[in-house]
Design brief:
heterodimer; A: 386 residues; alpha/beta; Rossmann fold; three-stranded mixed sheet; globular; B: alpha+beta; eight-stranded antiparallel sheet; 28 helices; 19 strands
């Protein structure tokens, strides 16, 4: 029996579906949300993931919260151990970048991990899989190895807590004799072949923001005379394309390290099955995507002109319009990921993946189109489970 | 009688007695019979009580009730007035009350006449035949409040004296007959302490008001509401430190002293007036400026009766400047907000200052409860705002605050947000705004001047946009209200306290007020967390209200609010149990820490010097 946390999250749900597809029996620790029970949430996700009815008998749902003693389970977490947990896959985490949420992040990403490790020790679990992030490397450039790190500066509280979590997991698993595997994906987007996704942040955010602003300005032009759109420099050209003058600061090098969810799932499975001794593994893209390419893809797909990537020095002292401010703010949060000059070493992961012929696809226009069209179709997730 | 409509009865029972139907705060007119007959029974508030009392079998159909019902023309003024602050629609209650009485009469029912007894005859001899009554339909509207810890107490008589001499005579007669009495300034009291089994005195008819522009003072009779006083002062470019608009100015001063965000600059308690006139318990008259008068400026930390019945207050007015405007400084962190408020106190910056909590921030600008509920979630979750320092000041003060605080919501942005509020909750926009999150909260980005065109495009602020949040049949009326600039003017709204009753729209409010030192974050947080803990333990809705600096930021007044459905006995019971914890805890706190004073003892000592209870 495998215990999986974060089973209602993007990565956790896909891992759960993959495990069930392989005939594994799993217990999902999940929360209820907005009046929907954990079991119902899991059920909806399994439907969406296309998990056949025959496999559903292999999944149990334990409704609980990582940040509560005993996970808030009644009568207690003992019920999780009764079935004999052999492995724990810990995917759950709070992914907020907001410093003001430090207490919540620490409660889930550190306190929650400690509780799961307590359970691992009590249940006699032999393997612990920790889904971390490549960005525990912190604010740096150059080579980032598949080993424990202690950066002094992080981009945000999320990275910091994930890094601290790795140290906790290593120390406690080592003491308890539990084999530990740490998986460090970079930024994960939708399925490269179907475009399907459950999460629409990171890669999606600037695109959906552009579309939101485009719709807003077009509405202002059509319905209200276009005064606000004009103030922002937005106009519709004769061929129907919309001009949005947005200069985005970009560096000369670096890019966005993104991987599709299908690659992540296959890589996770391969490492879990083939690297039985554990270790730290980067699951990343060897060819980061340039911001210029994303801009080009987005403009082509959505009939937009005017976006441009400019070196920072060109924008120095230049007045910025409100659309540019939106993107500048976004870049404050995501800049280190977009203009990323970190090189994530894959010495440990590569041999495992190569043996199985698993390669991370490059983000092509076709993949981008599929993913974004799916995003639009499902209202960026808002219509997924209605 | 027609069958009872449960929804109508529910509306009637929900009347909060905030008396907003007794002032023309929307500029849409005043209930004509109320204005004419003065008894609260003739106002929508009283009719709501009457309908509920009739349904509950508390009163028969009386001659007074018939007159009250028939005097209502169903003009509908009350519907918008009440809805604006409470969300209730009293017009259907007014209609149901009329129908009930009409049906009773049509069926041959004979209204009961309340026989005049000797005391009533003597009371009428003093105030005139129309202004003293023992008609149960009138008595019952002075017999209860939505206060959860007090039960109905039916008076024998309700008397409306017309002047000081009549009041003196009534007091002397009451003493002679051994009748207890109580004064209800505007015929209502949300605190629920003001009842009598003898005479209830309603001061509605003592409505003299004169302003002396040379001394910046106003002589105010006890029937004048804070709203009316403020209106008169405002017309002359002056301002009074006023509390709730429907409360009488005199009653407010005597009762708790006037505290509001303006207390930051204008002070509280004895700072509000330069002289007052009272009728004492023996029917003697004294003025505070007479050296032989009782020393009401002193304070004792125990519950004592009021010095008498106030018959006039000469209140201070304050000058206004044309460049006054409001702003909000948003915060995620409470301590930071309190620190800024204290700094404004220490530096004497601004006229009105308060740290307000999320409940006020969400409730005040929202014309519907649904919108307020959603805003209460969106402000912290999406924009990172949990508290705000609200301030009003001239341009120099605002510039100073801007420099001290950095990010502010100025009045222009506030107007944009207010008039576009329903669209602020749009999920797609919220996701976009949430994406602004980084090391700094999203509100910092939204408040930047460059973002204004985008915000305006998103929110499309207009009277129509904000009016879309209310029921369809009220939308046009709301469009007309919001088309008037003052309904989105921070200064006007706050100095008249137009929207403050909205805090109790969902449930009636039960407020705790505490004076404390503003630099003691530990103490403030302890008090807030105790209120929070006790409320949670008893499953009571609750929230931090506000904190306003006093005396240059050395002290402050803090309000923490519990919210209960006063018509639900189980909710009343919850408050009863909570009070059993809060009472001893607060008493102990006051005993061990002299810098803490709860309102319990300031009650009825509102004329005392603030220094006497701030620095015990």
């Amino acid at each position: 029996m495998i215990l999986l946390t974060g089973g209602t999250g993007f990565l956790g749900a896909h891992i759960a579906a993959d495990l069930l597809g392989s005939g594994e029996r799993i217990v999902l620790l999940a929360r209820s949300r907005r009046g929907v029970s954990a079991a119902d949430r899991v059920g909806r996700l399994l439907d969406w993931l296309g998990v056949p009815a025959g496999s559903r008998g292999n999944v149990e749902v334990a409704e609980g919260c990582l940040d509560q003693p005993g996970f808030g389970l009644e009568p207690g977490p003992a019920e999780l151990t009764d079935g004999g947990i052999s492995e724990i896959i810990h995917c759950a985490s709070n992914t907020s970048f907001a410093e003001r949420r430090r207490a919540e992040l620490e409660a889930v990403n550190l306190g929650g991990l400690e509780r799961i490790l307590d359970l691992a020790e009590r249940s006699g679990c032999r393997r612990f899989h920790l889904v971390s992030t490549a960005y525990v490397a912190g604010l740096t450039s150059g080579d980032c190895a598949e080993k424990l790190v202690s950066p002094t500066v992080f981009t945000n509280i999320y990275e910091e807590t994930k890094c601290r979590a790795e140290w906790i997991a290593v120390e406690r698993c080592s003491k308890a004799g539990i084999r530990l595997s740490i998986y460090r994906p970079s930024i994960v987007y939708g399925h490269s072949e179907t475009g399907r996704s459950l999460l629409f942040n990171a890669l999606y955010y600037p695109v959906r923001t552009a579309l939101f602003l485009k719709d807003l300005c077009e509405k202002d032009i059509r319905e209200s005379g276009g005064k606000k759109a004009a103030e922002m420099g937005v106009r519709i050209e004769a061929d129907g394309w919309t001009v949005m003058p947005i200069r985005i600061r970009a560096g000369d090098e670096g890019g966005l390290n993104i991987i599709p969810i299908d690659f992540f799932v296959r890589a996770f499975r391969a490492i879990r099955e083939d690297a039985a001794d554990g270790g730290i593994f980067h699951i990343v893209n060897g060819r980061p995507t340039r911001i210029e390419d994303i801009i080009a893809y987005g403009q082509t797909l959505f009939h937009i002109r005017g976006f441009s990537a400019c070196p920072a020095q060109e924008l120095e002292g230049e007045p910025r319009n409100s659309l540019e401010k939106v993107y500048e703010t976004y870049l404050e949060a995501y800049g280190p990921y977009i203009r990323d000059r970190r090189i994530f070493g894959t010495e440990r992961a590569d041999p495992v993946l190569e043996r199985r012929g698993i390669r991370c696809p490059e983000l092509t226009y076709d993949i981008f189109k599929r993913c974004m069209e799916y995003g639009v179709q499902c209202g960026w997730g808002s219509r997924l489970f209605i | 009688m027609p069958k009872t409509d449960d929804d109508v009865l529910k509306t009637a029972a929900q009347c909060r007695h905030y008396a907003m139907c007794k002032i023309d705060y929307l500029g849409t007119g005043l209930c004509p019979p109320g204005k004419k007959y003065h008894y609260v029974s003739y106002y929508p508030q009283g009719r709501m009580d009457l309908y509920a009392a009739l349904e509950d079998g508390l009163i028969p159909v009386t001659e007074g009730l018939v007159h009250i019902a028939e005097s209502c023309s169903l003009c509908g003024v009350c519907d918008l007035q009440c809805h604006y602050v409470t969300g209730l629609r009293p017009l259907r209650v007014m209609k149901a009350l009329k129908e009930k009485v009409e049906a009773f009469l049509k069926a041959g029912g004979k209204p009961e006449a309340a026989a005049a007894d000797e005391p009533l005859r003597r009371l009428r001899g003093i105030v005139g035949p129309d202004w003293a009554t023992n008609d149960p339909a009138i008595l019952v509207t002075y017999a209860n409040d939505p206060f959860p810890l007090a039960d109905l107490k039916m008076p024998r008589y309700v008397v409306l004296p017309g002047n000081r001499d009549e009041l003196v005579a009534v007091v002397r007669l009451a003493n002679e007959l051994g009748l207890p009495y109580a004064v209800r300034g505007n015929g209502a009291s949300v605190f629920g302490f003001v009842f009598s089994e003898g005479i209830v005195l309603d001061m509605q008819r003592m409505r003299h008001l004169s302003i002396d522009p040379d001394t910046w003072t106003a002589a105010v009779g006890p029937g004048i509401t804070s709203f009316e006083l403020q209106q008169e002062a405002y017309r002359r470019g002056l301002r009074v430190n006023a509390a709730e608009p429907a409360a009488t100015a005199c009653g407010n001063i005597v009762c708790t002293g006037i505290f509001s965000p303006w207390s930051h600059a204008y002070g509280t308690a004895a700072d509000a007036f330069i002289d007052m006139e009272f009728v004492d318990s023996q029917g003697g008259v004294f003025r505070l400026n007479d050296k032989k008068s009782p020393n009401v400026y002193a304070f004792v930390n125990s519950v004592i009766p009021a010095p008498g019945i106030c018959t006039e207050a000469v209140v201070r007015l304050h000058p206004m400047t044309e460049d006054e405007d409001g702003l909000l400084v948003p915060f995620w962190d409470f301590d930071q907000a309190v620190s800024l408020a204290r700094e404004l106190g220490r530096r004497r910056i601004g006229l009105a200052v308060a740290v307000v909590g999320i409940h006020y921030m969400a409730s005040f600008p929202s014309p519907s409860q649904g919108l307020a509920d959603r805003l209460k979630e969106v402000l912290p979750e999406t924009l990172g705002i949990r508290y705000a320092v609200f301030a009003i000041g001239d341009r120099f003060a605002r510039e100073s605050i801007r420099r001290l605080a950095g990010t502010v919501i100025d009045s222009g942005l506030w107007r944009t947000l207010t008039l576009g509020l329903p669209r602020l909750l749009d999920p797609e926009w919220r996701e976009l705004a949430a994406g602004f999150e980084s090391g700094r909260p999203p509100y910092e980005v939204l408040c930047r001047p460059e973002m204004r065109p985008l915000l305006e495009a998103v929110l499309r602020p207009s009277p129509g946009t904000i009016a879309s949040a209310v029921e369809e049949d009220l939308r046009q009326a709301y469009v007309e209200l919001y088309s008037q600039e003052r309904f989105s003017d921070m200064v006007w709204l706050n100095m008249f306290r137009i929207q403050s009753s909205r805090m109790s729209r969902r449930k009636h409010m039960f407020a705790f007020l505490i004076y404390l030192p503003l630099d003691r974050h530990d103490l403030i947080n302890h008090i807030n967390s105790e209120f929070d803990r006790i409320a949670r333990a008893h499953a009571i809705d609750h929230d931090f209200g506000f904190i306003t600096p006093l005396d240059n930021g050395k002290r402050a007044v803090l309000e923490y609010d519990y919210y209960i459905d006063h018509t639900d006995p189980s909710e009343r019971e919850k408050v009863r149990r909570a009070m059993a914890e809060i009472g001893p805890w607060l008493d102990g706190l006051e005993e061990t820490d002299k810098s803490v004073t709860s309102i319990k003892c300031v009650f009825s000592q509102g004329c005392s010097r603030k220094e006497n209870f701030l620095y015990r």
